[in-house]
Amino acid sequence: MEKHISIDLKNSADFISWEEVIALALQSVRHLDALNSGTGAGNDFLGWLSLPEDIQVQLDEIKKRARHLRSVSDTTVVIGIGGSYLGSRAVTEALSHSFAPLLKSSQHQMLFAGQNICEDYISDLTDILDDRNYSVIVISKSGTTTEPAIAFRIIKDHLERKVGKAKAADRIIAVTDSSRGALRSLAELNGYETFVIPDDVGGRYSVLSPVGLLPLAVAGMDIRKLVKGARDMELITRKNRNAENNPALLYAAARNLLLQTGRSVEVLVGFTPKLRYFSEWWKQLYGESEGKDGKGIFPASVEFTTDLHSLGQYIQEGQRILFETILLVNETEKKVTIPSEKDDSDQLNYLACKRLSEVNRSAGEGTILAHNDGNVPVMRINIPLLNEYYVGQLIYFFEIACALSGYILDVNPFDQPGVEAYKKNMFALLNKPGFEEEGKKLRARLK
Ligand code: PA5
Fold it and tell me: Which residues are catalytic?
C-alpha cells in the first residue's frame, strides 16, 4: 500500500499545463519560507504548523481524560461551532461505523450541539439526553461565541438537574483559551477540567489540538495514529522546497492557476458518505481563509455517486465556472460482493462477484472522464485507505496547502473579519447591552 496520499493533475492538463503548475509552485516556495520563518501575513497564528510535534506531550493526558468520560458515561455531547466543531465531526464521521447510533453494541455515542441555534434541534437533543448517561465537552477558543454558549447553558442546566451539580462538574470538560473568555471563567468557577487552545492556533487550524483530539479520543479514535499521519505529511511538505515533490505546493499552485482561467468554484468530491463532514471541514478551512478582499475560490462540495443524480447535471453541462478536486479512496476496510443470480432477472450478473468498491472505482473513473469531456478540470487526491493515519495526512496537507494558497492570493489566511458582520446585527436585534442604538437602526430597516 502507498505510504502517502498523493495528488494527480493529469485530468487538469487540458486547462493548465504541468509547466505552468511547476512555475507557480516554484514561485510559491517563498510562501513556504514565509510560513516557516513567520514573516508572512497572520504570522501570530502559525502554531498549527508544528502541532503534530508539539501535541505529542499532551496525548497521554488527552487519552486519560477521554477514558474518564467513557467510564462515567455512554454518550458525549460535543459543543462548539466552526473550527471548534467541524474537525472532530469530520474525523468521527469518516472513521466511525456508518450507522453508529443504531449499533446494538455498547459503543460510546458522540452527539454534537452548539453548531446552530435551531430550537427543534436542541429540543430533540435534550429529549434523547433525558435517557442517556452523558458527558459534555464544550469547546470555544474565544469562550464567548453565542451559539455554543447558548447550547452549553441549556445542556449544563439539563445535566445538573439530571445528576446534580457535583457529578455534572465531573463530566464536563472545557477546551478554551488559557486565561480569557467567559468559558474560562465558568470552568474555573465550577471546577471543570480544561484543555487549552494555544494562542497561536486559529479555530479552523485546530483539529490537531485538544479541540479535535479530545472528542476523537472519546469517540475511540487512535489519536496517536492521526497525529503520526499529520507529522509524516508535515515532513514531506513543510520544509520541502522541491516543488515537484511537494503535494501542497502543487495543489495550491494548480487551484490558483485554475482560478486565473476563470474557474472560481472548487467542488470537493467524495465517493463515500463518510467524507461528507470532511468536506464541511474543508469548506470552512478554505472559505474562511481565502474569501476576503473580494478574492477567493468558492469552496463547494458534493457526494458521489449520490449527487451525480442531482448536481451532476450542473457539473456536466452548466456554467463552466468550476473545477473539481476528487478524493479517491483506493481501498475499503470492509468487503461486500455482489451476488450472482441464477435467472439474472435484474440483468446485473455482469457485476456478479465484483466488490462494490470496484463498481465505485469505475463510477469514479467514468465520472472524471465524463466531466473532462464536459470541460471540467479535475484534480485527484489519492487516499490509500480511510483510517486515522491517512486522515491525519489529509488534514495537514489541506491546512498547509490552504495557507500557501492564501499567500498566493495575497490574503491573510488566518483571519476572518467578515464573520463579525452578522454577529453585530444579531446582537443589536437581540438588544445586547451596548448595541441598543444599532438595534434601533436595524429594526427601522426591517420594517
Ligand atoms: O476558524 C475560526 O476561527 C472560526 O470558525 C471559529 O472556530 C468559530 O467561530 C468558533 O469560535 P470559538 O472557538 O471562539 O467559539
Answer: 288, 309, 423
Residue 106 has pLDDT above 80, yes or no: no
Helix (H, G, I), strand (E, B) or coil at 325: strand
Taking a C-beta distance cutoff of 8 angstroms, is the pair 41, 193 a contact?
no
Q: How far apart are CA 20 and CA 253, in angstroms?
A: 9
Residue 43 Cα to ligand 1 midpoint, Å, equals 18
- What is the pTM for the complete model shown? 0.96
User: Ligand 1 center to residue 80 CA distance, Å?
Assistant: 8
**Cell numbers linked to 393:** 495526512
Calculate how far, in angstroms, residue 85's C-alpha sits from the geometric centre of ligand 1: 9
User: What residues does ligand 1 touch, defined as CB less than 6 Å away?
Assistant: 81-84, 140-142, 145, 148, 202-204, 288, 416
Structural domains of the chain ordered from first start? 6-41+226-413 (3.40.50.10490), 47-224 (3.40.50.10490)
Per-residue pLDDT tens over the stretch 26-38 = 999 999 999 999 9
Q: What are the beta bridge partners of residue 299? A: 266
Q: Does the CA dihedral 354-358-362-364 come out positive or negative?
A: positive
